[in-house]
């Protein structure tokens, strides 16, 4: 098979790394890719939102399978463009990707089908939102309705913070049109868990659990980011919680989308909060998480191409999804200043140390090939250093050891990724 991956981040590097292990894959392309992906696939200079060029390229190369990685193209209809051209594509159509593309849609869906989530109100006008806040119980959570690079969520502890948040999202347009509509949500207390799942429209197969670290600084301080590190599995995600979620959240979501004539084929990412009242949905994503993918896929036993094809063909019920009985931790190496202002173009050194080390991986997120062909930094999140271990503590120690192997100017990371496992 000839396979094309759309995207160029750490998630897509992890998908590409897993895909080339499949005996089904003869040739792998990635658009646009990055310096790490370029080592295992042919990278093509086509942007993630350039659907016409993507389709034209796929036709010219006789691509057998397209995998769309990021949220923006999925929500904008990338899968639809390939389907219209008669191609096989892994990823939800636009009408299904709105599960992530619109917070108000997903909240209304959960309300309609009794899927556990936080109480909420939706607003199109800043004035109405500000009036509502006067009587709302603090703290509250403000969410931009549209896509905001994983950063459009504000936790507001006081009324003044909440009012400032409304102005930031709706009037100052910090996240552009994503803030034209906002969701004001009750603040839930508990542990967050991420659970990814394959979906074929009617059947769902649950992957292993993970936990992300969104804040930029140690101790969960600082601004929200796309994710500074993650671990898998979550020791807080018990068999009892899993049984509840399978019955009342996972399958219920797939059934709800089917009932709404928005049949979902691809990945549903369930962001959960484990509250005293039980698990509740924080958010849905319509694709692999980043950096959750970097700890989930190294633990997956299956041929990922076979699973993708089963999702497309509606035969996921025939797949026995299996994961290794081990653990993984990913520590993101970022550019100092992320998620705000940071410099690019610094040489990345030490990547050769990962070549012969079993159980250690480095996934490129923000890199490109420099003039001498060597990788240089090209983003806020630069690398995801991932390591396996017999348990979470060993995996964490291994991951942090491996962060010392690689270096670049202005390298920054959190030092407490997976610290929560000490409390488990």
Automatic annotation (TrEMBL):
EC supergroup of this enzyme: ligase
Pathway entry: Purine metabolism; IMP biosynthesis via de novo pathway; N(1)-(5-phospho-D-ribosyl)glycinamide from 5-phospho-alpha-D-ribose 1-diphosphate: step 2/2
Catalytic activity reported: 5-phospho-beta-D-ribosylamine + glycine + ATP = N(1)-(5-phospho-beta-D-ribosyl)glycinamide + ADP + phosphate + H(+)
Entry keyword annotation includes ATP-binding: yes
Highest taxon above the source species: Bacteria
Keywords, sorted A to Z: ATP-binding, Ligase, Nucleotide-binding, Purine biosynthesis
Keyword match Transmembrane: no
Enzyme Commission number(s) from the entry: 6.3.4.13
Regions crossing the membrane: none
PROSITE patterns referenced in this protein's UniProt entry, alphabetically: ATP_GRASP (PS50975), GARS (PS00184)
All residue ranges annotated as the ATP-grasp domain in the record: 107-313
NCBIfam families: purD
Protein name: Phosphoribosylamine--glycine ligase
Organism whose genome encodes this protein: Clostridium boliviensis
Protein encoded by which gene: purD
């Amino acid at each position: 098979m000839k396979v094309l991956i759309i995207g160029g981040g750490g998630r897509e590097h992890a998908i590409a790394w897993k895909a080339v292990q499949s005996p089904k894959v003869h040739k792998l392309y990635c658009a646009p890719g990055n310096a790490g992906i370029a080592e295992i696939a042919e990278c093509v200079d086509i942007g993630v939102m350039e659907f016409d060029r993507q389709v034209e390229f796929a036709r010219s190369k006789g691509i057998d399978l397209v995998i769309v990685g990021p949220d923006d193209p999925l929500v904008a209809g990338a899968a639809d463009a390939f389907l219209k051209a008669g191609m096989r594509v892994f990823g939800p159509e636009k009408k299904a990707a709105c599960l992530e593309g619109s917070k108000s849609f997903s909240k209304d869906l959960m309300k309609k089908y009794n899927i556990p989530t936080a109480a909420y109100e939706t607003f199109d006008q800043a004035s109405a939102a500000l009036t509502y806040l006067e009587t709302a119980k603090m703290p509250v959570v403000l969410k931009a309705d549209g896509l905001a690079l994983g950063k459009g969520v504000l936790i507001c502890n006081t009324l003044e913070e909440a009012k400032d948040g409304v102005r930031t999202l709706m009037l100052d347009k910090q996240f552009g049109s994503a803030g034209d509509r906002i969701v004001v949500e009750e603040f839930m207390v508990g542990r967050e868990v991420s659970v990814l799942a394959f979906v074929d429209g009617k059947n769902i197969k649950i992957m292993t659990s993970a936990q992300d670290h969104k804040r930029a600084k140690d101790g969960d301080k600082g601004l929200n980011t796309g994710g500074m590190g993650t671990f898998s599995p979550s020791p807080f995600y018990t068999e009892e919680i899993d049984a509840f979620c399978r019955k009342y959240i996972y399958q219920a979501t797939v059934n709800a989308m089917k009932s709404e004539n928005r049949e979902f084929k691809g990945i549903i990412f369930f962001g959960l909060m484990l509250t005293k009242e039980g698990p509740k949905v924080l958010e849905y994503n319509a694709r692999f998480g980043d950096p959750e993918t970097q700890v989930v896929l190294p633990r997956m036993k299956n041929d990922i191409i076979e699973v993708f094809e089963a999702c497309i063909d509606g035969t996921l019920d025939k797949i026995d999804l299996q994961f290794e009985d081990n653990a993984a931790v990913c520590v993101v190496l970022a550019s100092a200043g992320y998620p705000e202002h940071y410099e690019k173009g610094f040489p990345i050194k030490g990547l050769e140390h990962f070549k012969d080390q079993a159980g250690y991986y480095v996934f490129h997120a923000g890199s490109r090939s420099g003039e001498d062909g060597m990788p240089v930094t090209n983003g806020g999140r630069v690398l995801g250093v991932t390591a396996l271990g017999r348990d979470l503590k060993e995996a964490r120690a291994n991951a942090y050891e491996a962060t010392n192997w690689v270096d670049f100017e202005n390298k920054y990371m959190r030092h407490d990724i997976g610290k929560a496992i000490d409390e488990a």
